[in-house]
């Protein structure tokens, strides 16, 4: 898919990082996958979306070394998104303290960017790093663009305040996207130079766009919505202690998502939690599951709502590989050329 995406004119391929989550994501060694992609391509950018930074997952100096090496080997094509991978299963698997994970990500980020710029010596924080330079240094000067996972308004403010790109990882509607863009821009306008993580500011706002595109619009929607149901049920299982996903890929995704949405709304009502849009965004199905013309219209809507970059989410649950490849082809031939 990544090789085909380069051929079709896509700008980036992103790889997540998750551990021990059956059904949800089996991409546990994204740096190896991205190195393989870099070796088989020449133009497309390669991105960690995201690399996990709490100390239990991996030491920040190792993250700095691996990403710098990949940036060198790819000729400066790396984007580095960061996050904390907050499912209880993953955190317990690696002994990560959820209570301090946000602070660990912040500390790790400062270590990684310091190492990249040759300033690793004498770090005094939770991790005591001895003096000494670390190699290699990144190909890009002063380092690869940095992004961070943004699933709520607090994360958006933090990203914008520190000069980091936003990976908006939700399935919400256009109104929610507009609000999130406004939050990001408001924080950007209020920041000072002292707020910035590094001088290399990255004000890039990328949004997830689930999509399946085929000539047969009805079949594309059937497959896409069913894939979304599998994706949402798997996430709910690992992040909210829900039941395992429905493994019958012939099931009616529309019906399954609506039933799950009713269940979640009832749970929130019982718990006294308001049904705000961000809580039910996963059940929005107004995505380009259809023809290339529908995908083209959706990109225009996303751009108008503030997206700088559209991250096509295609491999959801049981979406067949041939359908994934056809979706990449359709986007490349019929959608991307309109935005060049």
UniProtKB/TrEMBL annotation:
Q: Which GO MF terms does the UniProt record name?
A: monooxygenase activity; oxidoreductase activity, acting on paired donors, with incorporation or reduction of molecular oxygen
Oxidoreductase as a keyword of this entry, yes or no, is: yes
| InterPro entries listed in its UniProt record | Bact_Lucif_Oxidored, Luciferase-like_dom, Luciferase-like_sf
Domain called Luciferase-like: residue spans: 1-308
Q: Which domain of life is it from?
A: Bacteria
Q: Provide one Gene Ontology cellular component.
A: cytosol
Ordered alphabetically, the record's keywords are: Monooxygenase, Oxidoreductase
Keyword set includes Oxidoreductase:
yes
Descriptive protein name: Luciferase family protein
